[in-house]
Write a structure and sequence with these properties.
Layout lengths: L18 E15 L4 E2 L3 E2 L3 E19 L2 H6 L5 H10 L4 E5 L2 E2 L4 H11 L9 E9 L10 H19 L5 H15 L11 E4 L13 E3 L12 E5 L10 H6 L7 H21 L2 H20 L10 H17 L4 E4 L5 E5 L4 H12 L8 E5 L5 E2 L1
Parallel strand pairs: 5-7
Antiparallel strand pairs: 1-4, 1-14, 2-3, 4-7, 4-8, 5-6, 8-9, 10-12, 10-13, 11-12
Helix pairs in contact: 4-5, 7-8
The chain binds (3R)-3-hydroxy-3-methyl-5-(phosphonooxy)pentanoic acid (PMV).
Length: 380
């Protein structure tokens, strides 16, 4: 297992490339055991596990252009002291273009991310970055883009590190990409590999760590191969409660300790289920996790209800359909009103019919996204 100092950039190669241009396509993910509650620096209070998605992705290119630090930063005060400090103190200059348009709205979040990771990738301060990004899903769909967006940035930066230091292994590359992504958004640490990723220390996984996500290390039962996730867009507005506010509410939460214990237990159970293929037990854990996440929000101070009436209608319909047909359909939720409907590959025809005929009326403008489990990020 690696520790934070292992992620410090160590290379004597001072011969940095003049330019670099890297593109990554990185997936979103949906947690089965949820991460809710964190401590500094962006470490989870409990371990989580997620399905990596396929159709919901971010496509990001970063063009790195080496800058003349002496000219750009020091022309006004060319004393020796400030020359030394340029690398440590200066923020990295960057521009961001989102869906083809220059976007300043995302700048504070990206600046914060770059400031947080620079200690581990100090070479980026030698460059100006032009970031171009787009999502496969509509930005205002209520689907969190931070997991796919920040993992894409982390991977582009790792590609530059690999160019400077080709000796790093693929395993180190992935772990450090996840480590960096985590510093931007916790769930982004689970958007590097597929099909399942565990993030957070858990006794059943020797290699697991609070610092980065790892690919689920065991053979997954065939029932979970090609698992589907159809996302019903019930509310496409801005998140009612930001992740940061939500995580912070866990600090004073009267049930927080029990919740963190429960997440450990649920991951232990899910670990066995993922290997033995018991779909009924899978459903029980996944739905309970989703409702627990919402219950924690309802019982915090201040309290929030993140579901909408249509969220509940959909859940009721799913339960009725399951009772009538013995289907293995189930739902999970993020910290919002949209519903992720999970089901096995072999039930896709029946469940798709059910969704189209009975559930789309609860979606805003009838919008939904058909996704499934994916294999992880790809460099293009
Ligand atoms: O990555 P963050 O800080 O946006 O937190 C996301 C938390 C949930 O999406 C609600 C649950 C999870 O584990 O993905």
């Amino acid at each position: 297992m690696l520790t934070a100092p292992d992620f410090r950039f160590k290379n004597s190669n001072t011969n940095l490339p003049e330019k670099g241009n890297y593109t990554w396509k990185t997936p979103s993910n949906i947690a089965l055991v949820k991460y809710w509650g964190k401590r500094e620096p962006q470490l989870p209070e409990n371990p989580s596990i997620s399905f990596t998605l396929d159709a919901c992705f971010t496509l990001t290119t970063i063009v790195f252009s080496k800058r003349d630090l002496r000219l750009s930063e020091l022309s006004s005060k060319p004393d020796k002291k400030s020359i030394k400090q340029v690398h440590v103190n200066k923020s990295v200059p960057f521009e961001i273009y989102f869906e083809g348009v220059k976007n300043d709205e995302f700048k504070p979040k990206i600046k914060k991310f770059l400031d947080r990771i620079i200690h581990y990738v100090p070479f980026i301060s030698n460059y100006t970055l032009v970031i171009t990004s787009r999502n496969s899903f509509p930005h205002s769909s209520g689907i969190a883009s931070s997991a796919s967006g920040l993992s894409a940035l982390a991977l582009c930066i790792m590609s530059l590190e690999k160019e400077i230091n080709p000796a790093i292994t693929d395993a180190y590359f992935n772990k450090k990409a996840s480590f960096l992504a985590r510093l931007g958004s916790g769930s982004a640490s689970r958007s590097i590999e597929g099909e399942l990723v565990v993030w957070g220390k858990h006794e059943a996984f020797n290699e697991s760590s609070d610092l980065y996500g790892i690919k689920y290390p065991k053979e997954i039962h065939k029932n979970f191969k090609n698992y589907h996730d159809t996302i019903l867009l019930v509310d496409k507005g801005e998140k009612q409660v930001s992740s940061t506010v939500g995580h912070n509410l866990m600090y004073q939460h009267p049930f927080a300790k029990q919740r963190f214990t429960q997440a450990h237990e649920n991951l232990s159970k899910l670990n066995i289920i993922l290997q033995n293929g018991n779909l009924k037990e899978f459903i029980a854990i996944v739905e309970s996790e989703a409702l627990t996440l919402h219950a924690m929000m309802m019982s915090s101070n201040p309290y929030f209800i993140l579901m909408k009436p249509n969220t509940l209608e959909i859940i009721r319909k799913i339960w009725a359909f399951r009772a009538q047909t013995n289907s293995n359909i189930c739902f999970t939720l993020d910290a919002g009103a949209n519903v992720h409907i999970l089901f096995p590959e072999k039930e896709k025809k029946a469940v798709n019919n059910f969704i189209v005929s009975k559930l789309l009326l609860y979606c805003q403008k009838g919008d939904y996204i058909c996704d499934r489990v994916g294999l992880g990020a790809k460099q293009l």
